[in-house]
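Reminder to self: tokens first, then the designed residues, so the page reads top to bottom the way the pipeline ran.
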């Protein structure tokens, strides 16, 4: 039986401002995840290779999302607390390390700003309630995955796989038939559990099929398995109905960017372009404006 829960009305502007502040903090942490997670995985892979070769892995200092403290990659000097303040810290330091003057990428404040903006827009759309908490979690994962894929052309399993299960869990507990179905702010999300399960299955198998068909015809790898898992996660969070708009938007955007890179920068056809960021952006668009995109796409394919 659904649990009916009443959430006191909150001024939308105040809620959006609070979500933006949270987004700044979360974006700062995402910068750590984006920088460190691929390196943590590389260390694990090296250790596994050494073990498979029958050698003892060389001891290395602790390195994870918490240790060591944030520091300048050039001179290893710990970053001052003042310079860790989202966006403002980078501006105060003028985009450089206070100790050695090495440039600090503008990507750090950009990630923080984008996370804050996406959180604020989500708060305005979904209002206060558990579904908003789930949406913010999804957005945080999408930001991290998109930037990691841009950096490394790799979508890590420690992010994609939990995102699939979290999406299914949201539908199980907060979907139309779940115990939290009456929570204020649910709206159209999360989808019914059957739609979420079908979304995860169809999301994975659709790109898996395209990948293997492309490899069979051309003998080349068209995309990575991380893309399959990311689309499966989006299907789990948004339902199978969202898959076609996501793939269409991501494909068109990817093609346009690919053409622009070939014309503007002289990239060849064999120059790889990560598909994960396009899937993430398309997923965000459908999450925010799917009530407009979904009917338009369905009408277009229904004649």
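Designed residues (303 positions):
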């Amino acid at each position: 039986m659904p649990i009916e829960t009443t959430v006191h009305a909150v001024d939308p502007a105040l809620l959006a401002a609070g979500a933006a502040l949270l987004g700044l903090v979360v974006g700062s942490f995402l910068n750590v995840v984006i920088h460190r997670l691929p390196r943590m995985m590389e260390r694990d892979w090296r250790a596994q290779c050494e073990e498979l070769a029958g050698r003892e892995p060389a001891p290395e200092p602790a390195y994870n999302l918490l240790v060591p403290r944030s520091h300048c990659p050039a001179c290893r000097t710990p970053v001052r607390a003042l310079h860790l303040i989202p966006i403002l810290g980078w501006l105060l330091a003028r985009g450089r390390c206070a100790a050695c003057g090495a440039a600090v990428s503008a990507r750090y404040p950009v990630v923080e700003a984008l996370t804050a903006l996406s959180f604020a827009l989500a708060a305005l759309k979904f209002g206060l309630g558990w579904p908003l908490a789930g949406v913010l979690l999804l957005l945080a994962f999408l930001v991290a995955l998109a930037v990691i894929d841009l950096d490394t052309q790799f979508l890590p399993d420690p992010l994609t796989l939990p995102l699939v299960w979290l999406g299914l869990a949201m539908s199980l507990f907060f979907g139309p038939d779940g115990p939290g179905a009456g929570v204020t702010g649910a709206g159209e999300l999360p989808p019914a559990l059957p739609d979420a399960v079908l979304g995860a299955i169809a999301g994975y198998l659709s790109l898996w099929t395209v990948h293997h068909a492309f490899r069979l015809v051309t003998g080349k790898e068209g995309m990575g398995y991380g893309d399959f898992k990311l689309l499966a996660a989006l299907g789990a969070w948004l339902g199978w109905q969202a898959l076609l708009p996501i793939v269409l938007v991501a494909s068109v955007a990817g093609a346009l960017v690919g053409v622009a890179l070939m014309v503007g920068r002289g990239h060849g056809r064999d120059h790889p372009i990560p598909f994960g960021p396009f899937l993430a952006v398309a997923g965000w668009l459908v999450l925010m404006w799917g009530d407009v995109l979904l009917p338009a796409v369905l009408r277009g394919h229904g004649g």
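The chain is about 65% helix and 0% strand.
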